[in-house]
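Quick one, tokens below:
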């Protein structure tokens, strides 16, 4: 007799739980959390290095802290009352008008060269590099270079002497022209940034529009007002916002070249002097908060007056 043995049924292998798309449930959770894990480090650094110091500065503005004592006495809104009632604090905003006017000069120069170099021109890449190069230089280095340029008997006086100007003015020592010299330095430095923004915006305009305008007989000036200027209006608005914010928070060039002397002190320089020279960190923090609020309000008003154009995709 042949013994017949029955083979026990094979136990099916357990498989992990799968989602509707066939991906294991654990992997699906990890895939959904991966973008947030990448953002965690950036958001953490942003909170640690930006928002937390800003919150501390807001707290300091409500105290009379001198930057050294461990105890901080709460004074409420006294520092803000001092900021708005002390005429010497807000008087330095008049210096920002020089840089604000200079920002329009640099935007005009940048727009001119951007429109010119957007066409095929010999050595256009060389000229683009020359215009953008000053923006790549460190602001402290630029301050020292122009400090030697404007000093008595310096490079500028020597060049002017070649043309017969024997008694040039004191470019940084005369309060009546010192801010013009500093604003001109700022124009030289930041024209390259506006130039790159305008050039990129102009090159994004379809070339077929210019070809159609040429067929219709439009010259370059008519093409600029009919095509180029409307096409880069949003970038001009952005440059206007940067001009306002930059003119209100000028620091590097006047601090390096004059230290705020001869009527060249800006609001930021005065804030630093209040904090570190006069040991009034609470008042300086209130000044910084006020400056931030002014920039935000000006930006909000500008966005309301010149809103972005909404594209209808329907």
């Amino acid at each position: 007799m042949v013994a017949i043995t029955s083979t026990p049924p094979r136990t099916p292998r357990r498989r992990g739980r799968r989602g509707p798309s066939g991906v294991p449930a654990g992997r699906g959770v990890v895939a959904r959390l991966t973008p947030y894990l990448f953002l965690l480090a950036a958001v953490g650094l942003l909170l640690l290095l930006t928002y937390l110091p800003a919150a501390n500065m807001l707290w300091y503005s409500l105290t009379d802290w001198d930057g050294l004592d461990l105890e901080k006495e709460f004074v409420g809104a006294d520092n803000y009352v001092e900021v708005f009632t002390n005429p010497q604090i807000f008087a330095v905003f008049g210096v920002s008008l020089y840089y604000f006017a200079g920002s329009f000069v640099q935007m005009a120069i940048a727009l001119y060269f951007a429109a010119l170099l957007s066409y095929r021109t010999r050595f256009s890449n060389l000229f683009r590099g020359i215009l953008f190069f000053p923006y790549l230089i460190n602001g402290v280095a630029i301050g020292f270079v122009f400090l030697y340029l404007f000093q008595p008997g310096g490079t500028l006086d020597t060049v002017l002497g070649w043309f017969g100007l024997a008694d040039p003015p004191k470019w940084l020592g005369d309060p009546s022209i010192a801010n013009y010299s500093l604003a001109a330095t700022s124009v030289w430095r930041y024209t390259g940034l506006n130039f790159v923004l305008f050039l990129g915006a102009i090159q994004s305009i379809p070339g077929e529009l210019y070809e159609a305008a040429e067929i219709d007989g439009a010259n370059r000036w008519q093409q600029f007002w009919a095509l180029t200027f409307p096409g880069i209006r949003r970038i001009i608005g952005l440059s206007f916002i940067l001009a306002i914010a930059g003119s209100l928070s000028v620091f590097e060039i006047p601090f390096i070249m004059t230290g705020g002397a001869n009527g060249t002190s800006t609001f930021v320089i005065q804030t630093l002097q209040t904090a570190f020279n006069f040991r009034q960190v609470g008042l300086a923090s209130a000044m910084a908060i006020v400056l931030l609020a002014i920039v935000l309000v000006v930006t909000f008003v500008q966005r309301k007056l010149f809103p972005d154009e909404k594209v209808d995709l329907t």
